[in-house]
Write a structure and sequence with these properties.
This protein is mainly α and 303 residues long. The chain has helices at 3-31, 39-55, 60-75, 81-87, 93-121, 124-170, 175-189, 194-207, 212-223, 226-241, 246-274, 276-302. Helix 1 packs antiparallel against helix 5 and helix 8 packs across helix 9 (212-223).
C-alpha cells in the first residue's frame, strides 16, 4: 500500500471518528439531567414551571409535569456521558475537555497504529477497522474504571464524613450549617475527598435556588453509589422534618463500615480462589520437572 492510498484511508477514518464524536456529544447534551451544572438555566426554567403550576387552577400543569417525570424515569435506563463523568469525578472544564480530546484522539491513533500493523499482516483495512473500534471503546473503558475506583473511595470516606456530621449535630448544629462547616474545613486544609466534593456540589446546587433536601437527594442519585445515596436521603429527610439523629448517624456509619469490611473480605476470598489455579499450575510444573529428573537419572543408570 503506497502513500496515495494510505492518506485517503486515514482521512476517511478521521472523518468517521469526528462524526461519531459529534453525534455522541449531541445526544449527551440533549439528555443530560444534571441541573446543578447549569444553574442559571435550571433556575429560570424551574421558576417558569412553578409560575405555570401555581397559576393553573385545574391542576393540568402539575399532572403533566408528574407524568413527564414518570416517563423520563422509565425511559432513562443508562446514564449519559455527562452523568458518567460526574460519577467519575470529572467536574472541571479542563477535565471534560481532556476526556473529549481522548474520545477524538484514541480512535485516530488506534486506526493509524493498527493500519501500520495491518500492512505487514496483509489486512490493512480490517486492521484499521479493528483499531477504530478499539479506539472508540477505550475512553469509555477508562471512564468505567474511574467510576469504579471513585465508588470504592466513597465507600472508604463515607463513614468518616458521617461521623463528622454526627459530631456536629451532637454539638447542636443543624444539618445545613454542619455540612457547610465540613466543606469549609476541607477547603481550608485542602483535604477534600469524594464525599466532601459531592457535599460541596450540593451546596452549589443550593445556591442555584434548590432546597437542601432536594439538592442532597439529587446529588446522591447522580453519584451512582448506593450507600451514599441512602445516606444523603437520610440527611435530606432530617433536614426536611427535623429530629435528633446523632445515634442514627453513628449507626449508619457503623453499617457502612461493616459493609465495606464485608466487601474487602469478599475480595480477599476471590483473590484466594483466583490464585488457586496459578499455584496448582506452578506445583504441577515443579512435579513434572522433578519426575523428569528422576526418570533421566534412572535411564542413565540403566544404560
Amino acid at each position: 500500500m503506497n502513500a496515495d492510498t494510505l492518506i485517503p484511508i486515514v482521512a476517511g477514518s478521521t472523518a468517521i471518528v469526528l462524526i461519531v464524536f459529534l453525534l455522541l456529544n449531541r445526544k449527551s447534551s440533549r439528555t443530560s439531567q444534571f441541573r446543578g451544572l447549569m444553574a442559571e438555566q435550571y433556575t429560570s426554567s424551574m421558576a417558569e414551571l412553578r409560575e405555570r403550576i401555581s397559576s393553573d387552577e385545574t391542576g393540568e400543569q402539575l399532572e403533566r409535569f408528574q407524568t413527564a417525570i414518570k416517563k423520563d424515569k422509565k425511559a432513562k435506563k443508562e446514564p449519559t456521558i455527562e452523568e458518567k463523568m460526574f460519577r467519575a469525578g470529572i467536574f472541571s472544564r479542563k477535565q471534560k475537555a481532556d476526556f473529549k480530546r481522548l474520545q477524538v484522539l484514541a480512535p485516530i491513533i488506534g486506526a493509524v497504529v493498527f493500519l501500520i500493523i495491518g500492512r505487514y499482516a496483509g489486512e490493512p483495512l480490517l486492521s484499521m477497522l479493528v483499531g477504530l473500534i478499539l479506539g472508540l471503546y477505550f475512553p469509555f473503558k477508562v471512564l468505567d474504571r474511574k467510576i469504579q475506583k471513585r465508588h470504592e473511595e466513597i465507600l472508604f470516606f463515607l463513614p468518616l464524613v458521617i461521623e463528622q456530621i454526627s459530631i456536629g449535630v451532637s454539638s447542636s448544629l443543624d444539618i445545613g450549617p454542619c455540612l457547610m462547616r465540613i466543606v469549609e474545613m476541607a477547603d481550608e486544609r485542602d483535604t477534600h475527598n469524594p464525599v466532601t466534593e459531592l457535599l460541596r456540589y450540593a451546596q452549589f446546587h443550593i445556591k442555584s435556588g434548590v432546597g437542601l433536601e432536594e439538592a442532597l437527594n439529587e446529588v446522591g442519585q447522580l453519584s451512582g453509589q448506593h450507600d451514599l445515596k441512602h445516606a444523603f436521603m437520610a440527611l435530606s429527610q432530617v433536614a426536611k422534618f427535623g429530629g435528633e439523629i446523632s445515634k442514627q448517624l453513628q449507626d449508619l456509619a457503623d453499617s457502612v463500615s461493616a459493609q465495606r469490611e464485608a466487601r474487602v473480605e469478599e475480595r480477599i476470598k476471590k483473590l484466594e480462589l483466583d490464585a488457586t489455579a496459578p499455584v496448582a499450575l506452578v506445583f504441577f510444573g515443579y512435579l513434572v520437572i522433578l519426575l523428569v529428573g528422576f526418570g533421566l537419572q534412572i535411564v542413565v543408570n540403566m544404560g
